[in-house]
Automatic annotation (TrEMBL):
It comes from Solanum pinnatisectum. This is Exostosin GT47 domain-containing protein. Residues 20-302 form the Exostosin GT47 domain. Belongs to the glycosyltransferase 47 family. It is found in: Golgi apparatus membrane. It is a single-pass type II membrane protein. GO terms for molecular function: glycosyltransferase activity.
Length: 368
């Protein structure tokens, strides 16, 4: 348990391997801990009693020889949040120790060796999760938020799966106004920190351009319980929601906007999006490059050109795809975890090709 759900009970908690009977309910986290929770939901989907029904994308098997992929149940994001954020060297080293133990276990496993790790699935949604040993297990399928802090040789779109953040605001269930366009009186909404790293530095520039403008709400605040309530209210009363990059190219704000049915305005040059082979984000989002966003008045001018008819079309699309971004237990067909397992399944042909080729090659792979 110390590698996964034990951390939900407290630091250094250990016990027998988790079962459906001992799986703790997901805590009412806010902020970063709620955002980086894909590891919990993927594990829970494998423990689900009705696993194996036609509605599920994944079936847990107990015979390793019949498995298509191997899920590694290490809560690397929660481990980082639990131990590194204590500001204590001893606790930080414990996270490093857990990473080392997992990497060592995998590399000694005959099933890892069989495929060089290509058919193993490791969730590491926090940008700093598993950070000391990523390069030791980089053949595996990583489940990530983006690729902002990894080199392409360690993590890339070809082999890995992009997962949505867990949304912080609650889903807008009662969004059934007779005129949703006119009921949303704010044109553009943003609430969040403006002191960020990397691409996130653009937020200060956006603040200077957009603050104080008519029909725009731009609030520079962090994540608090009161702040979440303010964001919920703001997103539900706005036509568009600004989603600039955070410390990495992605931001949880995109998924808060989606479940609020507020058309996302995405400002990021290197963002990668979940299930993009199945979902066309252009149908419900508006994209700006970093340079475009820095032009005085450019974003506002473009948003004002979006007709009511076009906005309603995007709003309806948002309502239809919201369920794809919901993490929940019990899992449901088409929810976030279901979509992620389908993405993993899409990786299998390339994995099998690589494994089969490597078994028969007598010389170094000439494609490398």
């Amino acid at each position: 348990m110390k590698y996964n759900v034990g951390m939900l009970k407290g630091p250094h908690y250990d016990g027998p391997p988790v079962t459906i009977e001992t799986l703790p309910e997901f805590p009412h986290y806010t902020g970063l801990r709620r955002q980086h929770t894909v590891e919990y939901w993927m594990l829970a989907s494998l423990l689900y009693r009705e696993n194996g029904t036609k509605q599920q994308e994944v079936v847990r098997v107990l015979n390793p020889d019949s498995a298509d992929v191997f899920f590694v149940p290490f809560f690397s994001s929660l481990s980082y949040d639990t131990y590194h954020n204590q500001g204590n060297d001893t606790e930080s080293k414990f996270d490093d120790q857990l990473q080392a133990e997992i990497a060592d276990f995998l590399q000694k496993s005959k099933y890892w060796k069989r495929s060089a790790g290509r058919d193993h699935v490791i969730p590491m949604q926090h940008p700093n999760a598993f950070k000391h040993y990523r390069d030791k297990v980089n053949a595996a399928i990583f489940v990530v938020a983006d690729f902002g802090r990894s080199s392409p040789s360690v993590s890339n779109l070809r082999k890995d799966v992009v997962a949505p953040y867990g949304h912080v605001v609650e889903t807008f269930e009662a969004d059934d106004f007779s005129d949703p366009y006119d009921s949303r009186t704010t044109l553009l909404f943003f609430r969040g920190k403006t002191k960020r790293k990397a691409e996130g530095k653009d937020r200060k520039r956006l603040e200077k351009i957009l603050s104080g403008q008519k029909d725009i709400v731009f609030e520079a605040n962090g994540v608090t319980e009161g702040g979440v309530n303010a964001s919920t209210k703001g997103m539900r009363s706005s036509k568009f929601c600004l989603d600039p990059a955070g410390d990495t190219p992605s931001s949880c704000r995109l998924f808060d906007a989606i479940v609020s049915h507020c058309v996302p305005v995405i400002v990021s040059d290197k963002i990668e999006l979940p299930y993009e082979d199945e979902i066309d984000y252009n149908k419900f989002s508006i994209f700006f490059s970093r340079e475009e966003a820095k032009k005085e008045g450019y974003i506002l001018d473009q948003l004002k050109r979006v007709s009511k008819t076009k906005w309603l079309e995007m709003w309806r699309y948002l309502k239809n795809i919201t369920h794809h971004f919901e993490y929940q237990y019990p899992p449901k067909n088409g929810d976030a975890v279901s979509m992620l397992w389908r993405q993993v399944k899409h990786k299998l042909p390339a994995i099998n090709l690589a494994v089969h080729r490597n078994r028969r090659l007598k010389v170094p792979d000439w494609w490398r």
